[in-house]
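Convert to structure. Protein one:
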Amino acid sequence: MMGRLHLTATEAAAVVLDDGAGDFKVHPKWALVGKVLSPSILHINTITSALRPAWGNPRGLVINPGGDNVFVAEFATKADKDRVVDGPPWVVGKHGVLLREFDVDQRPKDMVFKCLKVWIRIINLPFGYMHRRWGEAIVGPIGMVGSVPLVDCDATGRCWGSYMRVRVEIDVHKPLMRGVTVFSQRLNVTEWFDVQYENLPHYCFSCGILGHGSTECKDPGEREADGRHPYSADRLCTPDDRKKKYSGAKMSSGSASAGQGRSSTPVKEKPSQSHNNGGAPGKPQHTDDYAEVSSPAKDKQRARTKKSKADKSSAKEKLSSQDQGIVGQKRKSQ
């Protein structure tokens, strides 16, 4: 900037700072800088109200603004900070939170946020691949270059169950990977293994990038033959998380945002919320409660029942008033 401007003598005269004392009282080892992946600007109080309880309300936690959707979180102990760093993907509302180490010499506008730590599941691996050694190799294309994956395994490095669980750092500016292609030199066979993500923050079903939804996508992907988006929640999210994704996604008029067809069963929904018909065609929607199917005969029956209750209530009130009149007449006669 200085090279492009013609500075005056006053502007060119540097202010000398004796900054060796370190007056900025933030312990760099106990602080984090974060950014919320939201298309709209959030107030620092909104961010604090969401993260403080999610982090367990640690004693001494202070969260200050650092720019648009950027904040600095100061912790009283290193243990509290490490617990947040190693915890699940954090969200404000439904939007993901990216964290990085605090640096007193870093400028807010120069900071780059692109890493998110997330647990993934590699589905239906052969028993021979269910080992830490192979897990670290298989997730290579998913994790960022230079990051070290963490495999959930026993003391001997072996994994058990129907999937392998690995914590990786992903680049939020790239589409989520839906699986991994593996070539076995021993068997001379190429195989595909699906990948699912745990607690995945808000992302686009169309392009697979975090931070926006399919209705705001600038580069939407082509739907599949069955109408689904290429990065639909039933493919990328774990079974426990699919329900949250579908109930939280908005549906545009005439079609579901996940593009997977409508359910044939009416569902109960709150007036202020929209739903997403995310499941496969012909399957019930992923919502908490199902409403009873309505019909004209049932409507008439309900109306008759309601009228009967109203008539009984009116008769009781009339009898009560008559009883009160009789009691009053007896008191006067006495």
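Protein two, convert as well:
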Amino acid sequence: MEAVMPDPDGLNGVTLLPALPGEALHTRVARTLRDAVTRGVLSEGSRLPGHRRLAAALGVSRNTVVDAVAGLEAEGYLRVQGRSGTVVGVPAMHASVAAPDAPLPLSAWATRALAGGLFDAGGDYAVDFRVGQPVPELYPEAAWTAALARQAGRAVQSHGAFDPLGPLETRRALAAYLNAERGARVTPEMVMLTGGTQSALDALARVFLEPGRVAAVEDPTYPGARAALAATGAAVRAVAVDDCGLRPGALPPQATVLYLTPGCQYPTTVALPAARRAELIAWARHGNAFILEDDYAADLHHTARPPSVMQGLAPDRVILLGSFSKSLAPVTRSGFLVAPPPVVRVLAGTRPLTDRAPGTLDALALADVLASGAYARHLRRVRQVIAHRQEVLLAALAAGLPEWQAQPARSGLHLYARLPPGLPEQQVLRHAARQGVALTPVAPLAAGVHPPAMLLAFAHLTPETIRAGVRRLT
């Protein structure tokens, strides 16, 4: 309904504004009158009609108008002047509203962050092989829900006593798990809980990088890491990888940090051999640099146990990053970093500027599933499913696209397939799209020239869908 207020007192017509979702009627009336005052439709000192006439004009009850006017009086927009009635108490604001196309006054950090080039995963395809797909059927919904229920009372009883590193119980459970399963050298005091690897990268980048400094990344690499490091204004140097991973001899000597995925290089899936690990640790010690080791795929190994983490070799120079978003569920937002105590103290001191502390309930639930053995049981089941789906994809590619060089991955949720010489990635993508299939190209992940290749995620697809997708590509 759009009612117009009559104009016996020389007032301009006022239209009851359309309702907003969930908006109470008296709030809608107050918003209508406030808008009329600020735009100058009701000028300062002008008198409003009495409550009954105003209610009739707007098609609402008198009590609704009384409530609305009382609120506007409290805010100072209206004044009651005895027998003179209610008058407008403030002048028109006539705020100068910026044109829709006026540029935002963005900081240099925001401009750099927006230039990071992260992927848009939109589109509707019959078969979607793109990386980053959730795998809901593999998540331990029952175990996680039960852990949340068991820990809910304890989270409430914490009474807001936040530790910027996260609950000690969870850090103890993580330290024990990493020492036993990943060959790490961790004490609870070296662990900080995070919202995931991306939030850890952002925190570390802000602490260690600034304009004039240098960060190094693998080439190709995870684009979120490159974007987080570049957003600080530091120069990001891309170091090419080969069939054995990053080449240490190509590292810039002056880099402050190196982002690395040694257990399962992203995206090529190769493991960094021991000799190169030793070279990188020596480089870090010589240059007082830190290696940011992203152990993103370790829990999801399926053909062979991945090598132990580099952090176990050099806990003074390697900062270990991990997340449970792929192995538990993205909604948990449960991640961690392991760093030397001096680094942890700095991160604990700077964290309150952003999010104070991780969520207590999720953290306690994570400790629960780790200590109870529920997580280990879940991984045993998931690894079997993932291994089978990778075998199905490898067999389908060997039969339908033998010219694609696809090697089995030890860990993770995707395959890296090198294309035949002379076959451009864009040609493959266009053909796949016409057939209703989505793939992830490698070129956007690389800063330099890299052999044409495709990534095919498989864990979220049934064997039948995997076979059907490859048939569409042939």
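The domain at 118-132+377-473 is CATH 3.90.1150.10 (Aspartate Aminotransferase, domain 1). The first helix runs from residue 25 to 38.
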